[in-house]
Amino acid sequence: MFNKFLRENKYAAIILAVLRVYLGYSWFTAGLGKLTGGFDASGFLKGAIANPVKGPEGDMVFGWYVHFLKGFALPNVDIFNFVVPWGETLIGLGLLLGCLTTAAMFFGLFMNFMFFLAGTVSHNPRDIFIGFIILTAGYNAGRIGLDRWVIPYIRKFTNKNASAEKPKAAA
Length: 171
Description:
By secondary structure, this protein is mainly alpha-helical. The chain contains 8 helices and no strands. The longest helix has 27 residues, at about 10-35. It is globular. It starts with a helix and ends in a 6-residue tail after the last helix.
C-alpha cells in the first residue's frame, strides 16, 4: 500500500520532489566543492585503512573493503580523485533536475555505502534512508522534473529498437 502511494500518487510526487531537491543540493554542493577546492582522496583512504570499522570485540568488520582500499583504491587514487567529485556533482545535478532520477539515486546510494563501509557516519544514514525512499518511488520521484519528458522518450526509443530486433513470425 505504501509502495503504491510512493510510486503512483501525485501528492507523493510533490513530497518526493522536495526530498529529491534537498538531497540533490547536498550532493551537488559537496561535489562542486571538491571540484573547485582541489580534492585529494588519499588522506581519506589512508585514514580509512589505518582506522577501519571495528566490531564490539575490536576486530575489523569489513576486512575485504579495507583490502580493496589498500590494494586498489590507494594505488589508483587519481581515479578516485576524478570519480568522487564528478560522481557527487552529477548525482546532485540528476536529483536537482529530476533527470534520470533512479539512476542518480542508485549511484548516490552506492557512494553512500562506500563512505559508510570506510567508517564515515556523518549524514550517511539520513541520506541512505531518503535515498531508498526515492529509489523505491521510481519514476514518481522524478515526475516533477525532467524525467516527465526524458523517461517517455527513453521508453519510446528503447521500445522502437526492441521491436526492430524481434524476428517477424512466419505467416
